[in-house]
What does this fold into?
Amino acid sequence: MNVPEFTQRKTVGKKLTVVTAYDALFTRIVEQAGIEAILVGDSLGVVVQGKPNTLSVTMEDMLYHTRLVAQASETALVIGDMPFLSYHTSVGESVRNAGLFLQAGAAAVKLEGGSHVVDRVEAMTRFGIPVMAHIGMTPQSVNQYGGFKVQGQEEEQAEAILADAKALEEAGAFAVVLEAVPVNVAKTITDSLSIPTIGIGAGPHCDGQVLVLYDLLGLFDDFVPKFVKPYAHLKSDALQALKQFKAEVECDKFPSDSESYH
Ligand code: KIV
It folds into this structure.
């Protein structure tokens, strides 16, 4: 999957699937499932590093995981997620940091924000760096929202998100992630753009859906956002396996003859 193929999917009308991955093992599994794009998300700050939000994730962290995914990837579009502060200070630094993702093996970058990042998106696109935009509830602005809260429930806010989406398309974004916005707002935006919308907590009318891999696989059970559907329950499977391993070692059942050399 390349960037033009991803964007053209909208006209074909076949929904797009995107999931996050942070390492080679899951990259291969995700690709075997035929998922069209892998986002090396800064969500790794939460799900891999155990932080409360994504704000402490660095370019070094992101480039390391992007390399792991890109080296293992054979079929999916690999998108590197630009971390907090990597595209905030100047257009020049933003383009340079975006370019480092391409050097690490990504085919595109994603960044959060609306009208205030349009100049970045425009410059990156001009220099051959495809950009996926991300609007609605943008996790790097969690402190401004006072928590991870649905955006666009007020009419004025919904109109601002629509205006942002149009400005980002105009600036050259090849797709836009809509996070935690009401279903009708996501539908209006999807109908208004010629680039695909990829929803997460944005209802069924988007052109595709993205989920954090570990949420989708049911690796967390302490907090599951409303918009997540766990398609497996790997946390309980893992726990069960580990408990059984411990019990079998303790009672001399493992290793048995078949796991031993002679
Ligand atoms: O970092 C991430 O994983 C993301 C997705 C949830 C869209 O931005």
User: Anything to note?
Assistant: The first strand starts at residue 16 and ends at 20. The pocket of 3-methyl-2-oxobutanoic acid is lined by residues 20, 39, 41-43, 81, 134, 177, 200, 210, 212 (CB under 6 Å). The beta strands are 16-20, 37-40, 77-81, 108-112, 131-136, 175-179, 197-200, 208-211. The mean pLDDT is 97.
